[in-house]
Design brief:
Elements (H helix, E strand, L loop, with lengths): L9 E3 L1 E3 L2 H4 L3 E4 L7 E4 L4 E4 L12 E9 L6 E8 L5 E5 L5 E6 L11 E5 L4 E4 L4 E2 L3 E2 L4 E9 L6 E11 L3
Parallel strand pairs: 1-15, 2-10
Antiparallel strand pairs: 3-11, 4-5, 6-14, 7-15, 8-11, 8-14, 9-10, 9-12, 9-13
């Protein structure tokens, strides 16, 4: 590419977040009829069971945190991605708001054309499988809290890369 020459961004098309569409990237965490569920506590509670494969990786341990995300203004330019090569990372919204999820398959640094954009409802969480590329938290509308389950332990577990070509998320 010649100096001073810009590359046109790829425009990402939003998809609804479903178990089937997201399966290559990890798990959708939601209380739906598709999930294994059963009644417990003398009939007072419905347990939606084993919704995500939490993987703390070798010599790791699962940790629980709350991330407070600032809302992103749309349109938004995706210029970087990250991955956690040693373990999974789960996000469960706590603030009752939808949010966006941008992912790419594990492997070499993704290209903008490899990215997929999902709109997560306020009642859906995601669990990124180990080494899946994803954009950091994309809260919408207002400051939003997320329960996060990821890895604590020795060793570097976050790779960040700049995209050679940006991608644009338009107004939803």
């Amino acid at each position: 590419m010649n100096a001073g020459m810009s590359v046109a961004p790829v425009v990402l098309r939003a998809e609804p977040l479903t178990r089937e569409a997201f399966a290559a990237f990890g798990d959708v965490i939601e209380a739906s009829e598709a999930a294994r569920h059963f009644t417990i506590n003398a009939g007072n509670t419905e347990r939606y069971h084993d919704l995500a494969a939490i993987e703390p990786g070798p010599d790791g341990r699962a940790i629980v945190s709350i991330f407070r995300g600032q809302p992103r203004a749309l349109p938004f330019t995706v210029e970087m991605m990250e991955r956690h090569p040693l373990a999974s990372q789960a996000f469960v919204p706590l603030s009752g708001r939808p949010y966006l999820v941008v992912v790419a398959p594990p492997g070499a640094t993704p290209a903008a054309a490899d990215l997929r954009l999902f709109v997560a409802r306020a009642d859906q969480g995601v669990n990124y499988a180990p080494a899946v590329w994803h954009h950091p938290l994309l809260a919408l509308e207002a400051v939003s809290d997320f329960l996060v389950i990821d890895r604590g332990g020795a060793g570097p577990n976050c790779d960040e890369v700049a995209l050679a070509q940006p991608a644009i998320i338009g107004a939803q």
